[in-house]
Write a structure and sequence with these properties.
The protein is mainly alpha-helical. Among the domains are: 174-283 and 339-392, no CATH class; 289-333; 580-662. It is built from 28 helices and 10 strands. The protein has helices at 12-20, 61-72, 83-95, 101-108, 115-125, 127-140, 158-170, 175-184, 193-202, 218-238, 257-268, 290-307, 313-329, 368-371, 385-392, 400-413, 434-446, 451-459, 472-477, 494-504, 530-534, 552-556, 575-583, 585-601, 607-619, 625-636, 643-654, 657-660; strands at residues 270-271, 273-275, 281-282, 284-286, 335-337, 340-341, 347-350, 358-362, 490-491, 661-662. The strands form 5 sheets. The chain has a two-stranded antiparallel sheet with strand order 1-6. A two-stranded antiparallel sheet has the order 2-3. A hairpin with a 5-residue loop joins strand 2 (273-275) and strand 3. Helix 6 (127-140) crosses helix 7 (158-170), helix 8 (175-184) packs across helix 9 (193-202) and helix 23 (575-583) packs across helix 24 (585-601). The chain starts with 11 loop residues before the first helix and ends with a strand. 42% of the residues are buried.
Length: 663
């Protein structure tokens, strides 16, 4: 059957019924009306900020877009949050860590008119920012340190991609460049070895996904990997579910099966594995320094000479000594998990997704609904990966800037302007504020794709600085906060919960952790070491992520599935969370450490003063008289003024909603 007729022929059952009722000769029914065009595929507009009645409230143009919707719904925005709540919000939002007492006090006594802007700049300049916001992107990139699925072998150099992401956020790498490096960094020119390493590490985005490495059908394995790469790239950068068109035209979005195989040809021309048979091996680049490669080549030469039967015994001793000296001075090989080029090839349509039932040949290209029919052909000898990356990163692309602007908004507010940040298609949810989304996308591109500039724009707004204490009528009319007429309280993510507990107890080690797993490439991970990893006091972003197993504490607080892109973590409230906080080694050790440290620092402190210090230290606000009185009664149930009593009090505060929620 010609592919051009697909979807237009009536079914055999319909023909049979039509014949039986005597209407076989009637005119064919009209084609159904085409679906409405997707809003997300329209060019990004440059909307003017609307007029508003409450003209004194906005501090940024974005506030006018928000306020216009609030006023149209018959409401008013909520007043500004108190300075303490606002400072704690900013620290947890940008760093994933609460402020220290000294940091809070420094902000509260700063009477300069630009104190809030200064605080934002200070937080954005800290390396803690990249650790927090890099983790957001790792959710989208489905990052893990092991393969998962049928062969949970380690990815011992995946941590280099994790650190690349953290460093890219800290350096405010332009997001368009960030895209190109992750899809085709290994193909970019480099000024030196350091740049070559960084760009190649970035391309690990394509390699760190889960794979069926023990599949006994190499062709199927290869195409399944390509499918995962297409689906991840589409969701991550464009908010589109291209993977739905593997077997047939997309049922809802304007993506045909030919579009899918135009992309498939790009990734089939990309080598992700060096061995496509049981057990498959992931391709890695060896990017050691020239002197290291020369040293290893010399060691290999010595080994050959030592093994050669003509080498005299008296010559072996100096060779062995030279080898030992070289080995002592050589660093490990610099391996990088990332793809490389394959011989370029176009793909044939796989009818019903079956690679053994082939249809028309489709040239490597981009989806027609997005790139048009007149798109520039991919060069014959190239995979097209670099061209694909640059097409996505174009400032004229209707999706790219919208998708990342929406992600940043969602990670700040807990809800996107498009509530489905990974799906801008017909099955996704339309934006609540389409003009605001285009405004933010345009501002992002105009700033040189600077995410830090977008943070400043959002956080300096009156919208961001609203209080969570809203009027009852507003809460009833807009329970989901779709109007953004208040601050929406939300629980911290799992990493922020763990890191905040460690930080407030003085146990957090802020040293970047480096390699996550002490295992060799293509060897199985040791899941028995999860407990050992969990006891580490580094930031949670540096703990190894194993697809086959997770940490109890992280899972309890909704750590995402690292096998799939996830830009919209769910937030649950369930009993096991409270049980974890009451019983976990993390909370017990942290509470004990905090109590012992306070008793040592102020051994003669009165119980009332100690309770006041503990509340302010952990909750970032002064204790009330009622809280101090209740704390003293609580302590009185324990023997004397003991560390155990104050550790129990600290545990209660660690488990409180006020500690766990961003207000």
């Amino acid at each position: 059957m010609p592919l051009s007729l697909r979807g237009h022929l009536p079914s055999l059952a319909a023909l049979a019924i039509s014949t039986l009722v005597g209407k076989a000769d009637d005119a064919a029914p009209p084609d159904p009306e085409p679906p409405p065009p997707l809003w997300s595929l329209a060019p990004i507009s440059s909307p003017a900020p609307p007029g508003v009645a409450l003209a004194t409230w906005p501090t940024r143009d974005l506030d006018r877009f928000v306020l216009a919707r609030i006023e149209a719904a018959g409401h008013r925005p909520t007043g500004a949050a108190a300075p303490r709540a606002l400072a704690r919000r900013a620290y947890l939002d940008l760093h994933g860590l609460p402020p220290t007492r000294e940091q809070m006090e420094a902000f509260l006594v700063d009477n300069r008119p630009d104190a809030w802007a200064r605080l934002i700049d200070e937080l954005l300049a800290s390396p803690r920012y990249g650790e927090r916001w890099g983790r957001h992107w790792l959710d989208v990139a489905r990052y893990a340190d092991s393969n998962g699925m049928d062969e949970d072998i380690a990815h011992p150099s995946a941590w280099r991609y994790r650190d690349y992401v953290i460093n890219a956020f800290n350096a405010d790498k332009p997001f368009d460049r960030f895209i190109v490096e992750q899809l085709a960094g290994d193909l970019l020119p480099a000024a030196d070895l350091a740049e070559r390493r960084s760009q190649t590490i970035a391309a690990g985005f394509l390699s760190i996904g889960p794979k069926m490495l023990a599949c006994d059908d190499p062709d199927k394995m290869r195409r399944d990997i390509v499918d995962e790469q297409i689906d991840t790239a589409g969701r991550a950068f464009l908010g589109m579910t291209f993977g739905c068109a593997r077997c047939h035209d997309h049922k809802y979005d304007p993506v045909s099966i030919e579009d899918y195989y135009g992309l498939a040809g790009i990734f089939l021309s990309t080598q992700t594995l060096t061995k496509y048979s049981v057990v498959a091996k992931i391709h890695a680049h060896e990017l050691s320094a020239p002197e290291v490669r020369a040293g290893r080549a010399r060691i290999a030469e010595i080994d050959r000479r030592l093994a050669h039967q003509d080498t005299r015994e008296e010559d072996k001793a100096p060779l062995i000594a030279e080898k030992e000296q070289l080995a002592r001075g050589l660093p490990p090989e610099f391996d990088v998990i990332a793809p490389t080029e394959y011989p370029a090839e176009d793909a044939r349509v796989h009818l019903r997704g079956d690679y053994q039932t082939l249809g028309d040949l489709v040239p490597r290209r981009f989806p027609v609904a997005l790139a048009g029919n007149g798109q520039t052909a991919i060069p014959p000898g190239a995979s097209g990966r670099l061209e694909f990356a640059r097409w996505i990163a174009s400032p004229d692309h209707p999706l790219t800037a919208r998708v990342i602007a929406n992600r940043v908004w969602r990670w700040h507010f807990g809800r996107g302007l498009v509530p489905t940040p990974d799906n801008f298609g017909a099955l996704g949810t339309a934006p609540t504020h389409p003009a605001l989304l285009d405004h933010l996308a345009g501002e992002l591109v105009a700033s040189g794709w600077s995410l830090k500039a977008l943070h400043r724009e959002i956080m300096l707004s009156a919208t961001y600085r609203q209080s969570a204490s809203a009027a009852g009528a507003l809460l009833e009319a807009d329970p989901d906060n779709a109007l953004f007429a208040r601050w929406q309280r939300r629980r911290m993510e799992s990493e922020a919960v763990r890191d905040s507990i460690l930080a407030k107890s003085g146990r957090l080690d802020l040293t970047p952790a480096g390699p996550s797993l002490g295992v060799r490439p293509n060897h199985y991970v040791d899941r028995d070491k999860l407990g050992e990893y969990a006891r580490a006091t580094c930031r949670t972003v540096y703990l190894p992520v194993l697809r086959s197993s997770g940490y109890d504490g992280q899972n309890a607080f909704d750590f995402p599935d690292p096998a799939v892109p996830d830009g919209d973590r769910r937030t649950s409230t369930v009993a096991p969370q409270a049980l974890f906080l009451m019983n976990s080694d993390l909370v017990h050790a942290s509470s004990q450490t905090l109590a012992e440290a306070r008793l040592a620092a102020a051994p003669d402190e009165a119980p009332a003063a100690r309770a006041a210090w503990m509340v302010e230290h952990l909750l970032d606000r002064p204790a009330t008289a009622a809280e101090i009185e209740r704390a003293q009664r609580f302590i009185a149930h324990y023997p004397a003024d003991s560390a155990e009593a104050w550790a129990a009090f600290a545990r209660a505060l660690f488990a409180s909603n006020e500690f766990l929620y961003i207000e």
